[in-house]
Amino acid sequence: MVDAPTIPRAHLRQGARPAVGYAMVLAAAILFGINGTVSKVVLGSGITSLELTQMRSLGAAVGFLVVVLAIRPTSLRASPRELVFLLLFGIAGVAFVQWFYFVAIHRLPVGIALLIQYMAPLLVALFARYVLHERVRRRIWLALALALAGLTLVVELWHGLALDGIGVLACLGAALAYAAYVLMAEREMTHRDAVSLSFWGFFFAAAFWMIVQPVWNLPFERLDDSVSLLGNLEDETAPVWLLLLFVVGVGTMITFALIAGALRHVSATRVGITAMLEPVAASIVAWLWLGETLGAVQLAGGAIVLGAIVLAQTAR
To answer: What is the model's pTM?
Structure first.
């Protein structure tokens, strides 16, 4: 999940129930898919990608802080050296992966945006091989070839890039940012729990965006506006604050809890592979809700990309 939380390495606990774990990942993938369309509705209300990113970061930081203070406040402790790392993690990973993601889904069909962004696991495997000098299975080369072939079909390159160019660049930016997010989170998870890591990530992301745009410049007056749900639900309306609450509460915190809970029952690699259902779920939700459709060639390309992602997930 580009929109999903990191999936660190984990050891299964005694009494693990794989069926429960897979059900939790499936629920998270569906909620992430719905979150993509809800976010697109918010963006259609006049709130910019930067404003939505800032609101989500601020809301998630507050939410995770409440959770951490309730369950284990001592986990917030961090040395000055670690705070520097967490600062970089919050900006390079959390802040930019969200912003690029929102720019991408605003300009492209949700399913296509997620397919391109899910190149991140492949980038992680390549980074591990050539920068960290880890042993990576040879199947990574097959995964790379399949991913490039699939993306050629998805973006219909023979037409001179049929999709919005800025949207495609934002997808690639999100993939790079998410790869950095995963690698940095994997390093930090060796001595920090996932909830406190999420708090620090969203905290520094929110702080960074406050420097870019002061919080008092956010369009809080629009939160009470009722906006059309667009597409097949264009006759229905909802207040912007409710949609934002879904993005923060359901699309970020509940989905995170589901993924974290699934790691108690299923290995990290299998969780990552199962989470590949997110682009599929997002495409179905966008089709039913927004009327977004993909051509037969794009669907075929998407299937090839998903196959490449599965190979990349198992290459480390």
So the answer is: 0.81
